[in-house]
Write a structure and sequence with these properties.
Elements lengths: L1 H9 L13 E4 L3 E7 L3 H6 L15 E6 L5 E10 L2 E7 L3 H9 L8 E4 L5 E6 L3 H7 L11 E4 L2 E6 L5 E6 L1 H13 L3 E2 L2 H10 L36 H9 L5 E9 L9 E4 L9 E10 L2 E9 H5 L4 E3 L5 E5 L7
Parallel strand pairs: 1-11
Antiparallel strand pairs: 1-7, 2-5, 2-6, 3-4, 4-5, 7-10, 8-9, 9-10, 12-15, 12-17, 13-14, 13-16, 14-15, 16-17
Length: about 325
């Protein structure tokens, strides 16, 4: 189905940049889907993810994390349930690594894990008219962030952001027909970088190959995004995550920032501050996306004491200064 979808997109107008206030349409196949099926699927995921899988229903998705035994994040996923299948969505580059990791814990559980990226196409819609555009197509904007509505084989998840924003999942006939209707309504097809920018502006982090095992969940504010349950019981890495929450002191956390530079920031790029008390970099870039030429929005995990010192935080030891936002990032 992915090849069929890519062939379809070649018949459409090429993606472009747009006015950030315009209604925009996105191809989201740069995300992958891992399907978890079987009689023990829910129990299995409850023992592997940071969030409480019991809260996932036909009308509610959730953010969650998958950790190593040392509490380091291998992936930050969105979990949704369609019929009897749980889907874990994450950047496609991390899907095989996550699948391999989880298979180590299946043992005798009645669970199957497989790449389901070709089962459901994913597109995004963002803009002030999102609710009206969905209604004109027979779809409903969910009432709350992470909530999910369905109409037949098409599923709509509301996402965080200043403007209404949704992800839509479905099979090729349904999604291609929906795409054509939205295109006819003058919704512009734009680049994946613009979706990445919307996630950054909403404080939604992703884990990439470069940043796998670089962070514990609280460093990327997963607890503020309702991505951790501290009451669910044991899961892989839980002891480290719980200790950080109840006993330890969080020394690094994620901030939103902007930077002006000729070199595009990349995930895992080091940041430095002269006030740092550590013997290593003061932090790392989580994600970055262009706002305009030479200007980038960034999510970065930075040493809290360094930020509070007021000293400049730089991209690289002698690089451009990051302008940090001090507002709490909670995915609102």
């Amino acid at each position: 189905m992915i090849t069929q979808w890519q062939d379809f997109l070649t018949t459409q107008a090429a993606p472009s940049s747009s006015d950030s206030a315009a209604n925009r349409l996105f191809d989201l196949t740069h995300f992958g889907l891992l399907a978890v099926r079987g009689a023990d699927a829910a129990t299995f995921l409850q023992g592997q993810l940071t969030n409480d899988i019991r809260a996932v229903t036909a009308t509610q998705s959730q953010l969650s994390g998958c950790c190593t035994q040392k509490g380091r994040l291998l992936a930050r996923v969105r979990v949704l349930q369609i019929s009897d299948t749980f889907y874990l969505q994450l950047p496609a580059e991390r899907l095989l690594a996550l699948c391999k990791h989880l298979k180590n814990y299946v043992l005798r559980s009645k669970v199957t894990l497989e790449d389901a990226s070709a089962e459901l196409l994913r597109i995004g819609l963002a803009g002030a008219d999102t609710a009206t555009l969905l209604a004109d197509c027979g779809l409903q904007l969910p009432d709350a962030v992470n909530a999910l509505t369905s109409n037949g084989e098409v599923h709509v998840i509301r996402l965080a952001g200043a403007l209404p924003r949704v992800e839509i999942l479905g099979d090729f006939p349904a999604i291609s027909a929906l795409w054509e209707r939205l295109d006819a309504a003058q919704v512009r097809f734009v680049t994946a970088d613009e979706w990445r920018l919307l996630d950054i502006q909403a404080g939604i982090p992703h884990i990439y190959d470069q940043t796998a095992e670089a962070f514990v969940p609280q460093m990327i504010n997963l607890q503020l995004l309702d991505g951790i349950s501290f009451r669910k019981g044991c899961y892989t890495g839980q002891e480290v995550v719980a200790r950080m929450q109840h006993i330890g002191t969080l020394k690094r956390q994620m901030y939103r920032a902007e930077v002006v530079t000729d070199t595009p920031p990349q995930p895992a790029d080091e940041v430095f501050c002269a006030a740092s008390t550590s013997q290593q970099a003061s932090g790392r870039v989580v994600d970055a996306a262009p706002i305009e030429t030479g200007r980038y929005a960034v999510l970065a995990v930075v040493e809290i004491s360094a930020v509070e010192s007021g000293e400049p935080v730089r991209l690289g030891e002698n690089g451009a200064v990051l302008t940090l936002e001090m507002t709490e990032l909670n995915g609102a």
